[in-house]
Amino acid sequence: MKYERNRHSSDSDDMRRSYRRRDSSSDSGRNDSPESRRFRSRSSEDLPDEDMLNNPDGLNEEPAMHFDFDDDDVRYYRRQSQEKAARRDARSQERRRAEKAGAGNTKRRSRRRPELDEDAIGGEETVMYGIRNKQHTNKEIMRVTTVMLVIFFAMIGYFLYFNTAQSKTAVYNQHNSRLAKLSENVVRGSIYSADGQVLAQTLQDADGNYYRNYPYGNVFSHVVGTSDVNISGIELSSDLDLISTTDDTLTKLKNQFTGEKSPGNNVVTTLNTALQQTASDAMGSYEGAVVAIEPSTGKVLAMVSKPDYDPNSLPSTYEAIKADTENSVLFNNATDGVFVPGSIFKTITTLSYLRSQGSLDGFSYYCSGSILLDSDNGEQQYLHCAGGERHGQQDYADAFAYSCNSAFAQIGLDTGTDQLTETANSMLFNQDLGTSFHTAVSNFDLTSEDTDWQIGATAIGQGRTTITPIHAAMIASTIANDGVLNEPYVVSEVTDPEGNVLSTAASDGTKELMTADEAETLTQLMEGVTDYGTAESMGYHSYTIAGKTGTAEISDNEADGYNAWFIGFAPADNPQIAICVLVENASSYASKYAVPIADEIFTAYLGE
Ligand SMILES: [Zn+2]
Q1: Does one domain contain both 27 and 115?
Q2: Domain range spanning residue 254?
């Protein structure tokens, strides 16, 4: 029974090995003592064989053979045990004496492993456990080594797999701190304009510290953005490309040891340096935005937001700029600002009217300077034309060119709430614009509960309607491109440090927002605006500009000023550029604020 318990309490292989070891040690000092007899009786031929170990019942057939202690044995073991204890006492006294004497070998001796103690070998248990402990230790080492090897190879495998296959998708998560880790090992790449100018680059100061440099300072501040304290713009949207490298895994590994950094990839944008500079200069100290798009491709040629900031000094000025909530300098008005559109919305109202009536032919309206409409407070209220102007008898083209509010309030009523809403939604109001960069959602809100006054106000771009400048530019671009919107984009290529193209980007997609006929009708109306209407000051160019102005009231208080808008494209018969200009807080009409800026932009891009 004792043996059986042992078998169950320890590994059978261990047990067998320990028996064998005892057997061989007994060979060297064979005598007739009960101890030696015990060893001999447990010679290899007596060892439980595999079957027996696996079959405890089989052992029970001869259990007494190994465990039949008689009185002599007991006495012998007791004596041996006493002698052993005496020897141990003597040894420890000797050790203590040596320690007191400060003998150098005391320490070494005290570290001796018990199983190597020659005196102890005579004791069966000591030998047995000594050897077993050693074997146990060896086995653990093997086990730990195996586990370590498995982990090591798994890590190597994962590292190679991650670097070749998974890195791009895994890292795309903006919240992934791996981005920060990657950027530590890579010199962030440069951002170029479409004409090859450096818009952002990484330089090293005299102490060898890397820093981000923006050669054009304020000019590209919002669209290019910054990468340090307030990651934004292209620095944000192309972050992964800029901190990715074409260095192979071995080079990257080597760099980790040498501390060198791999060069990051570069990003080439669609931005036109001269046009961006012109737009920024033309805006001057005005607040607002300029967006210019190439209609046939969707390339963003320029994107300015004012007020702007110098990205070179942002790391030190960031806290102060952030604290100045009044000026919102870091806010990108072009993409994230929503503004009352005013009369540029008459393009949408016209499209809606076209869709409800089928044609503009036959439209006739006599403008006496205002229109009386049922208002929200249950009374009738006048809706005026700008500046109290009386436009008299007009066809549709005149009403559009002069931007007659009275006529368009009537057009809105003729069209109806449902059609206005449907058309606005078809022109991407109340939804994500689907661009590759973030934009706010433009709002159009009209219900069957609304009064005629509210419908009239909405038809002229007031009411609850708001729009982003990028969206307004997209509408101009769609009309310019026969009704098809090429979704705007700002990054066209990713290149390696030698300039080899790694990937190219184009418009994210096209959307047919209106028919070619609808676009043509709108184009003709917009040509009238620059020919003899509110933007006739642009009529001098050698090419025709199609455009629409807007002067939006942002409150009942005139001191709050207006949103002065211009949207348009040129040349009208072969559009190369579509633009939106917004000047906030203008004290007068769009023709005095937005139109001259638009004129400078067209001139810079297309000449006089
Ligand atoms: Zn009028």
Answers
A1: yes
A2: 178-271
How far apart CA 292 and CA 301 sit, in angstroms, is 5
User: What was the pLDDT predicted at 356?
Assistant: 96
Tell me how far the alpha carbon of residue 522 lies from the centroid of ligand 1, in angstroms. Answer: 19
- CA distances to 1, 16, 128 from 132, in Å: 22, 11, 6
Instruction: Report yes or no on 50 lying in a domain.
Output: yes
Question: What's the CA angle centered on 428, arms 425 and 430, to 5 degrees?
Answer: 65
Gap from CA of 547 to ligand 1 centroid (Å): 19
Q: Ligand 1 center to residue 526 CA distance, Å?
A: 17
Whole-number pLDDT of residue 267: 97
Q: Is residue 439 within 8 Å of residue 433, measured between CB atoms?
A: yes
CA distances from 457 to 161, 391, 562 (A): 60, 18, 15
Residues 209, 124 share a domain: no
Predicted local confidence at residue 256, as pLDDT:
80
- Measure 370 CA to ligand 1 centroid, in angstroms: 7
Cα 474 from Cα 92, distance rounded (Å)? 95
Residue 207, token pair as written in the block: 């102490």
Residues 11 and 120 in one domain: yes
**In the chain, % of residues over pLDDT 90:** 59
pTM: 0.72
400 C-alpha to center of ligand 1: Å? 10
d(CA 224, CA 231): 10
Residue 597 clears pLDDT 70, i.e. is over it = yes
pLDDT exceeds 60 at position 64: no
**Which residues, 6 or more positions from 130, have their beta carbon under 8 angstroms from its beta carbon?**
113, 114, 115, 116, 120
383 CA → ligand 1 middle, Å: 10
Q: Of 250, 271, 292, which marks where a domain is finished?
A: 271
The C-alpha atoms of residue 591 and residue 402 are separated, in whole angstroms, by 11
For ligand 1, the distance from its centroid to the CA atom of residue 286, given in whole angstroms, is: 29
| Structure letter (DSSP) for residue 143 | H
- Using the predicted structure, report yes or no on whether residue 47 has a pLDDT greater than 50: no
Q: In the predicted model, is pLDDT for residue 176 greater than 90?
A: no
Which helix (H) or strand (E) segment holds residue 80: the answer is helix 71-101
Between 191 and 161, the more confident residue is 191
Total number of domains constituting the chain: 3
Q: What is the pLDDT of residues 463-497, one digit of tens each?
A: 999 999 999 999 999 999 999 999 999 999 999 99
Kindly state whether residue 75 falls inside one of the protein's structural domains. Answer: yes
Average pLDDT over residues 234-256: 90
Question: Do 95 and 199 have their domain in common?
Answer: no
